[in-house]
Amino acid sequence: MAETRVVVQLTENHGSDQENAASIADDFPFGGELNVLDKKTLRLLCCQNATKPQVMVAQKLRFDALYVNNNEEHKLRELNTLLNNLFEEQRDCLLLHLTAQRGYNLMLLVDTLIVQINVKLQQLCLKLERCDMHYRHIAEGNSCNPLDAHCVFQDTKQLMAWLLNEYRLRTSLAQGHEAFQVEYSVVHPEQGYRFSVNLHIVLVAMEELCRGTLCSFRCYFSNDPISAALSITELTSYVRHAGEQVADKPLYLLMLCHVLVTDSKINCNHVQMLGLANLACKHEQDQQKDHYEPLAITSISSHNPLLQFEQLSNSLKEVNDCFKLVQGFMLQYQEQEQQLQDIRLSFNQECSNFVPALLASKEQLLQVVNSITQQ
After folding, report:
1. pLDDT digits over 213-252, tens only?
2. Angle formed by the axes of helices 305-374 and 268-301, to 10°?
3. DSSP conformation letters of 110-129
4. Which domain of life is it from (predicted)?
5. What is the DSSP secondary structure assignment for residue 191, as one 8-state letter?
6. Which of 122, 112, 110, 116 is nearest to 165 (CA)?
7. Residue 200 near residue 92, CB atoms below 8 Å
8. Residue range 347-358: average pLDDT?
């Protein structure tokens, strides 16, 4: 599983007053209202039941970082941490970039894949030998897209040329989400060692995120591995595969959410984005907690037989509860199967009664036709 850092960027919508008023009137009944509490926490007031839009529910959402103003220093700081993990720690990284609407991300790609890469390589006295790039459009139900590309570049100048020419054409023709995988092969000229690392950039638009993919993301960032394994889509499969490729060190995943705010109000796409970001942050905190707690429990239980017996009793109780749950599911399945058999028998009986009635109607119709013919 990846090591996840969740960052939320709140940007004020500086449109005209009429546009803001229209946006609030259209989106707020299905969106929410924000109130920033501190540098990591905000309060979200939103409607969770479409049949009762007048009932608002307050939620407290927490992230690893919450930036209110659109400051370049914040983005550069996060990218610097990402590239430190990429080249200093020599671990694969993934930038999961979420926006409400599908936009033009050329400047983000140039800054991340080229400008900041060159700066970091110069700082670490590393030299780029080649970069192997895979570009892919991700759309549900379409695993192969003619706009996908695979290119090998000898330096970042060639990659820049591809972005300015090929990418601009491909992204204007395609729909859905986009994913980049760039493998950087670098060498340290003085010390002579070489290594290769992968940087993934996944550009996600919430407006094009189907319900199944949204549920799949929630399962991926939850503590339910069974649901996560059963709920698989093209987008989550890509993120999961990027994490499974890493053998030695876990993938470093930076989840960067851009939220457009209009007079403290956001639309439904931003509400879903913030809920997903909060779940991802909570899951990462739970992972860190689970990583440290078992050591303390083991050290205590090894010196306390009574505590060890209580732990075994609790484990046995959990197993029994799981068994009862499975048994309940089996009983429900048997009842449903019996109901289906009853429905099938009833259907067959109705069919058997329907055939004679149909034949009788056919005979009556023939008699009527013969009588009309004879007249």
Report:
1. 888 888 888 766 666 566 678 888 888 888 887 767 889 9
2. 140
3. HIIIIIHHHHHHHHTT-EEE
4. Eukaryota
5. T
6. 110
7. yes
8. 78
Check whether 24 has a pLDDT greater than 60: no
Beta-carbon neighbour count of residue 72 at 10 Å? Answer: 8
- In this structure, what token pair is assigned to residue 322? 């799981």
* Distances in whole angstroms, Cα of residue 142 to Cα of each of 137, 147, 172, 177, 344: 9, 12, 18, 12, 37
Both tokens of 348, joined, read 């067959």
| Structural domains of the chain, with CATH | 3-291 (3.40.850.10), 293-330 (no CATH)
By the 10 Å C-beta count (0-12 exposed, 13-18 middle, 19+ buried), 337 is classed as exposed
Amino acid at position 184, single letter: Y
Structure tokens at 27: 């989106």
How many residues are there in the chain?
375
Task: Name, in order, each residue with C-beta under 8 angstroms of 332's C-beta and a sequence gap of 6 or more.
Answer: none
Between 354 and 11, residue with greater pLDDT: 11
Q: What is the per-residue pLDDT across 294-322, written as a single tens digit (0 to 9) for each?
A: 433 333 333 456 656 666 666 666 666 65
Residue 299 amino acid letter: S
Tokens of 5: 């850092």
* Distance in angstroms (rounded) separating the CA atoms of residues 150 and 339: 53
Q: What is the dihedral of CA 208, 15, 29, 261, to 10 degrees?
A: 70
Contact at 8 Å (CB) between 171 and 163?
no
Q: Any idea what DSSP says for residue 229? A: H
> Do 65 and 7 touch, CB atoms closer than 8 A?
yes
* Percent of the chain with pLDDT strictly greater than 90: 33
